[in-house]
Write a structure and sequence with these properties.
Rossmann fold, 4-stranded parallel β-sheet, disordered N terminus
């Protein structure tokens, strides 16, 4: 009788601790971008383990499909990627090599983050056929939508729904973390927009089309690009044309992603007597941009600082306009 009771107790303990072991397991998540990893970690908290294939200092267009990444995907419960063909050159190879049905297209562990964004809000969708002569053009549109924080909220909501689908036992935690993330980001958006109001209508030059969502959000105009076409370095003739444009329009700012070679952009900025501003192309690309919100904060602050430095008259006029508008609403 005593032995029988011990056996029953042992079975109970095995079931009890076995159940808790399963409950305590973290979701193993692989993302393609540090920004997606940061948002996912904010939502998942202690219930997720997140690995980003690319690092902030890397251009996600050009990644080698390493076997080590396949191993990560083989063990993943969920893959989250940017979509809009940003990872088209390497992610399909990783998925194929991972041999993990859970992260294949159509499976529950396969999440295209771009589906959170309305197609009408995707910028720079080319019209007509796309060919290599046009440069590195994405047929589905510009994939760098996370540079607009409103889209960051939409992606965070999408990720929350997916985590709840895969791990419903922690639904309350994921919902609570999302609300906290959204509240914090919305508060920062208000701060960003107030601080960046002096940038409205300012024109500048970009090295690449990477920054379109950021500029569109802040109402900044890209007057031209240093690249001849996306991904194609400028010819001497094009550099002359872009510097002539900058002098004619008195443009004083050139921005470039941290992972791009700044040499050509520096040459253009020097000739035009403008300021070259290097911005982090992704989360963790530069010190002080260590999370999604910090990344946005870094870009806004530095854009404002350089605008005040090189365009004091324009920014002062914007400040005066803001003061007049405030007086008018009182």
């Amino acid at each position: 009788m005593q032995i029988k009771r011990i056996k029953i107790l042992l079975c109970f303990l095995m079931v009890f601790f076995g159940w808790h072991t399963i409950e305590a397991q973290e979701l193993n998540i692989v993302t393609t971008l540090p920004s997606l990893a940061s948002i996912t970690k904010s939502i998942g908290g202690e219930h997720v383990e997140v690995y980003s294939i690319t690092r902030g200092v890397q251009d996600a267009h050009y990644i080698e499909a390493k076997p080590s990444y396949m191993v990560k995907l083989n063990r993943a419960d969920l893959l989250i990627y940017s979509g809009l063909e940003l990872e088209i050159g390497w992610l399909p190879l990783l998925i194929q090599g991972a041999r993990n049905h859970d992260v294949t297209p159509g499976a529950s562990g396969h999440l295209n983050a771009s589906l959170a964004i309305s197609t009408s809000n995707i910028l720079e969708k080319p019209r007509g056929e796309v060919d290599r002569s046009m440069g590195d053009v994405h047929p589905a549109g510009n994939p760098h939508y996370l540079l607009n924080p409103y889209y960051g909220i939409k992606v965070a909501e999408q990720i929350t729904d997916k985590l709840i689908e895969l791990d419903p036992s922690h639904m309350d935690v994921y919902d609570s973390n999302f609300e906290q993330f959204r509240t914090e980001l919305q508060k920062k958006i208000t701060e960003f927009e107030t601080e960046a109001a002096i940038l409205k209508g300012i024109e500048l030059v970009c090295y690449h089309v990477h920054w379109s969502y950021l500029l569109n959000w802040l109402d900044i105009k890209a007057a031209g690009y240093v690249e001849l076409r996306p991904g194609i370095p400028p010819t001497p003739r094009h550099k002359k044309e872009i510097t002539a444009l900058m002098k004619r329009k008195n443009l004083k700012i050139v921005i470039i992603s941290s992972w791009k070679d700044p040499t050509k952009a520096e040459e253009v900025a020097d000739v035009a007597e403008a300021k070259l501003l290097i911005l982090p192309g992704e989360v963790n690309a530069m010190p002080g941009a260590d999370s999604y919100i910090e990344w946005l904060d870094y870009m806004v602050r530095n854009l404002v600082d350089v605008a005040i430095e090189v365009e004091p008259e324009t920014t002062q006029r914007q400040r005066d306009r803001q003061r007049e508008q405030k007086r008018g609403t009182k």
